[in-house]
Amino acid sequence: MNKVVPIMMAMALTAPLSLSATPVEAINDVSGGAEVVVESATKPEFTSHSAEEISKADDANVLLKKRLHGLQQYQAAFTQTVTDAQGNIVHEAQGTLTMMRPNKLRWETTFPDETLLIADGEAVWNIDTFVEQVTIISQDQAIKDNPIVLLTANDDETWNSFVISKLDDAKASSTLEQYQIVPKSADGQIKSLTLGFNSNGILSTLDMLDAQDQTSALVFSEQDLDFAIDTAKDNLFSVDVPQSYIVDDQR
What we know:
- This protein has five helices and twelve strands.
- By secondary structure, it is α+β, with helices and mostly antiparallel strands.
């Protein structure tokens, strides 16, 4: 079971800011109506940036911030495919994701195994019912040098730790509006993150390349941005660990 993606996602998705449902048409006027130039960043350079390159990166930052602003809740089905450096599939999963701001997330897989991950705002609880074990990790452990933190961070210090590029139509891998995020530091577990937004500005794909050159591709469907939920009744974001379970507390 590949646990890296759900844990990394959970930690990044448990802060006040979030994804975005801003329509594409709402972001056309950037820099006083000037045309936005975008580029692909498959091999970003971190030294000797030209003025033109810096301008493009600034445009990408502005556009992505608009995409990642304003959502209070997000619910979707997902499929996950993990491939190695040679393109071989090493893991597949299906399940559902439920998120509520400012600090609640539930990631549940239904295939190939039934597993549950809950973020309660201070810790992430990874519950494996098959082996009756719970692994607990803190938010600080999970998001260090991880570009997925930009899903929730809005401060300049955090954003300046990454190089952001908007992939143009010719180089993007799909018809989605795509952004690639690469850490300036090489110390983290994630090399790059690519976010894809559909024509309504809703997050639809998430591709993550890790330090072992494995790629985790997530595709979201049945997205619901305005669902009704009763957390007191359903206890979707709380954890009640049975006494028989082994608890691995890594906080």
